[in-house]
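Working notes for the structural subgroup meeting. M.R. asked for a predicted model of this chain before we commit to crystallization trials. I am recording the input and output together here so anyone reviewing the notebook later can reproduce the run.

Input as submitted:
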Amino acid sequence: MRTVSARTVATLLGPEPLGRPAYRSLAAALRRLIADGRILVDTRLPSERALMSQLGLSRTTVGGALDLLRDEGFIVTRRGSGSVTALPEGGSGLALSGAGVLPTDLPEDVIDLTYAALPAAAGLTAAYERALHHLPRHLATSGYHPRGLPELREALAGWYATRGLPTDPGDIVVTGGAHAALSAVLRALLDPGDRVLLETPTYPNAIVGVRRSSLRPIALPIDPLGWEPEQLELAIRQGGARLAYLVPDFQNPTGRLMTGDERRAVSGVLRRTRTVPVIDETFVELGLDATPPAPFAASSPDAITLGSSGKAWWGGLRVGWVRAPHAVAGRILEARHSLDLGTAVLEQLVLVELLRAGPSLLDERRDEARRRRDAMVTALRTHVPDWRFGVPPGGLNLWCELPVDPGDGLVRAAEASGLRLARGAQFASHGGMDRFVRIPFSVPADEADEVGRRLASAWAGAFASRSERELSQPLIA
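Returned structure, recorded in token form:
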């Protein structure tokens, strides 16, 4: 069974003194940690004695808090396991994450905040024009390139080399996006019932991909402690994960950036536990205030790296790839055949042109993302000042903590206010996180204030919009 140490509980609770009565204040703090997914459901809590010692509290305070949580359904007592976290029956956190795959129609006056993506990058049209010039020489072939066009694999290998990761083009398999790349890796390396470690919160389509591959997710909470090596090793050993899916570069949705020291420490844990790292670098080119360290695979030679053109260049350019050790690349290629037979030739040629264009186009891209981020930060601080969030050093998302749990009310009220939002619970691999919402800064800077106004309207109406109508599950990107 998953466990959490008294020291970790104390860290999560923070240094703020408890209010009065202390047992109710402690219960409220623990309740929030469980509901937010920071202490996972089905986790064995430390003993009362350990909590008393670590927190410096009396038995009456600790025991009273745990008794209150038992009465509310946030803790259950199991013979041989002590106090185990739970969610009350019927609570919204019990529902598993279910990011939809079919988007619903969007009225023209609704701003869609379910996509963390920018419009096409400057220079994309010119890249298409140059790619069309090279297309005729491919028209005399079958057009099937299961590994990807040789010139694209060479360009990607060169891109990795400039980032400090020498790469052979033979170690790259081109796919129809990073999501397709992850699906191919899961099919190649795992069997139904195997366990996969996922960060929580994380990219919802990764959760769905794991579950629909008949695999079992194991959660690693990374907010607010980040990728804590001790907790990572504990989660892997207790859960038996064979593979770990991680997003170290401007993590989706938190925007966190894993430092070089953290990469080496996490790599050491994965190596000791013989867990295969699958590293999603979808946002790696969107460093706004910080440049990512060397790629994770530089300190973990067995790592499998996923990449995509969607965030850096344009979501409509459906080209992704897998970089894997040579011995594994063949298995991934074979598994990929069960998904598709190749990636569109023209789009591959376009990406070749973009990679050859040099960093200037990406510098413009980052400048635009930075303007949009700063405008959204100002809008949220102006119109919903009680929402808490950090300003991420890169990526495309703000991960906002709400002062109270609105249930589904915020999403429903947002629709009425002209916004489409993704539920925070969709980013949780094991339930909870209803008190969070991801706000992409993908709208133009001059529209950010209007988003803030609509969010303020939705927040004001969140608790008046309770309804039995089933919520739609929008596509999330």
